[in-house]
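Morning!

As promised:
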Amino acid sequence: MSTPPASDLDRRVAELLQAARRRREQGRETIAAIVRHQPDAIVRAYSRVRFMILRQSFLDAIGQYFPERGEILDLGCGFGLFSLYYATMGPERRITGVDLDARRIEMARRCAAALGVTNATYIAEDVLRWRDERTFDAIYMLDLVHHLPVADVAGTLERIASRLAPGGTLIIKDVADKPTYKMLFTLALDRLMVGFEPIRYWPVLELSSLLRALGFDVRVHPIRDVLPYPHVLYVCRRG
Ligand SMILES: C[S@@+](CC[C@H](N)C(=O)[O-])C[C@H]1O[C@@H](n2cnc3c(N)ncnc32)[C@H](O)[C@@H]1O
């Protein structure tokens, strides 16, 4: 029995589905390669866990706001896991990662070199002191805000916002203070990583009001997880 000829629309839908499948597969392979190329066994284990928490669908939900080409800034980039992901998935992007921890930055550079990624560069610097003359088409901060001193957050966000190109997007992924059991779960894990350093999980209303006061149009998305993390995504654009 012969299959009826597909209409142009059917063909187009099939092509789009095929392209989405290929991209998803490329994303899976990219994550596996980033984990595999970590220069240190402990960081390799950490990376595996980090990519389980901020898994591919989550990263792609964030990545949809990034242009395919242009300057992108990752503040508090840690070991560079996610900047390496976005740089590999968008070879025409130029990504700059900034982190206070010089060891993490060194690991990020080594991993980029091992992967042959040339469109991600890393700077060891405190975000509170960081200055850059460039403007960026997108800026993101994944789980950084709750580590910053409360008194510095408004000024830092204002300075960061001034580096955003017209029409650019600021993405903040952070952890909310509610529900309490989820917040305590996250706090226990954060304490394992940073000891007794100050941490503040901002109430969603407070952080979104602050961002709106800086002139952003803010959309807030809670993100569900099988683990009890109160993840929240703030998508901020200037009108
Ligand atoms: C929870 S980790 C998140 C790392 C990475 N964004 C990720 O999602 O895997 C927080 C990162 O923020 C960095 N950090 C904390 N305070 C900072 C500051 N004042 N300036 C720059 N980086 C900072 C830490 O060194 C750490 O790598």
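The beta strands are 70-75, 93-99, 120-124, 136-142, 164-175, 216-223, 231-238.

Hope this helps with the figure draft.
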